[in-house]
Write a structure and sequence with these properties.
- The chain has a single domain, classed as 2-enoyl-CoA Hydratase, Chain A, domain 1 (Alpha-Beta Complex).
- The radius of gyration is 18 Å and the shape is globular.
- It is built from twelve helices and ten strands.
- The strands form two sheets. It has a six-stranded mixed sheet, sandwiched between helices.
- The longest helix has 17 residues.
- It has 268 residues and is α/β, with parallel strands linked by helices.
- Bound molecules: Salicylyl CoA.
- Salicylyl CoA binds next to β6 and α4.
- It comes from Achromobacter insolitus.
- Belongs to the enoyl-CoA hydratase/isomerase family. MenB subfamily.
């Protein structure tokens, strides 16, 4: 790929910056966005002049709000099992032999929160908000989105995040270990630059080995993601999942349970 439409790519002073550029969709990703991010990660990941990669979203509203629900019709609009090669993108963030830093400038929701989870480090503006929304909108990201999140924030907290779909403020994300630092939005770039500059003084080979050793311990989750996407593709074909997407687009509450289910639920 020589030029991108959904992302911006900038390489300067040893740092590559990948910016999702879909402000009208709160930086949600469609199939093309994932493909471009994958291409850019390959480009930066194996460029010897690059020592750190920053992943962010354009503007100050959203880092990334996950899959683009307007490009979802029983599946997203791209390639792969669910029409979004998210498991490939998530794995690649882990595979590139240099630190990937999430610069969280706003909402990190759904698949956006999963990207934060997969990044090596995360630095957030104090205005950022985090959360999973799958069970509210007929989706789930079973793999790095669940099992890796549990390693990052703990089992109970990860289950709370998925089962209740609440939103968490930046300082709460800091307390639970989802981000490394929180700063005022106006200081976000300077803080990210400081972290990158420190990393660039280190031995790149030692960092690459350290990163791979962290990954080796949790790489079985990649298998869970493959299995999970297979299941998710089947779930997307159901009325229950499609109701979640429709409800989001129609800006109403989803109705996942029919009256007959409610009666059934009350029986011992
Ligand atoms: C981000 C959030 C919390 C913002 O809420 P609010 O109330 O501040 O704004 P609003 O009105 O909901 O959103 C602003 C505009 O951005 C669009 C909205 O439709 C709206 O557009 P307009 O009405 O102004 O035209 N927008 C926001 N997020 C979008 C998205 N993901 N796709 C398309 N348009 C989006 C609130 O908007 C929210 O909760 N968004 C999350 C939506 C969502 O369902 N994300 C996907 C989850 S599933 C996923 O990421 C996934 C997975 O679980 C597994 C595999 C692959 C992907």
């Amino acid at each position: 790929m020589t030029s991108y439409t959904d992302i911006l790519y900038e390489a300067q002073g040893g740092v590559a910056r990948l910016t999702i550029n879909r402000p009208e969709k709160y930086n949600a990703f469609r199939g093309k966005t994932c493909d471009e991010l994958i291409d850019a990660l390959h480009r930066a990941g194996w460029d010897k002049t690059i020592g750190a990669i920053v992943l962010t979203g354009v503007g100050d509203k959203a880092f990334c709000t996950g899959g683009d629900q307007s490009a979802h019709d029983g599946g997203y609009d791209g390639r792969g099992l669910i029409g979004l090669p998210v498991e490939e993108l998530q794995s690649l963030i882990r595979e590139v032999p240099k630190p990937v830093i999430a610069r969280v400038n706003g909402y990190a929701i759904g698949g956006g929160n999963v990207l934060v989870t997969c990044c090596d480090l995360a630095i957030a503006a104090d205005s950022a908000q985090f959360g999973q929304v799958g069970p509210k909108v007929g989706s789930v990201d079973p793999g790095f989105g669940t099992a890796l999140l549990a390693r990052v924030v703990g089992e109970k907290k990860a289950r709370e995040i998925w089962f209740l779909c609440r939103r968490y403020k930046a300082h709460e994300a800091l307390v639970m270990g989802l981000v490394n630092a929180v700063v005022p939005l106006a200081e976000l770039d300077a803080e990210v630059d400081r972290w990158c500059a420190e990393i660039l003084t280190m031995s790149p080979t030692a960092i690459a080995i350290a990163k791979r050793s962290f990954n080796a311990d949790s790489d079985s989750i990649r298998g869970i993601a493959g299995l999970g996407m297979q299941a998710l593709a089947l779930y997307y074909g159901t009325e229950e999942s499609q109701e979640g997407v429709k409800a989001f687009l129609e800006k109403r509450k989803p109705r996942f349970r029919h009256d007959s289910d409610a009666v059934q639920d009350k029986q011992p």
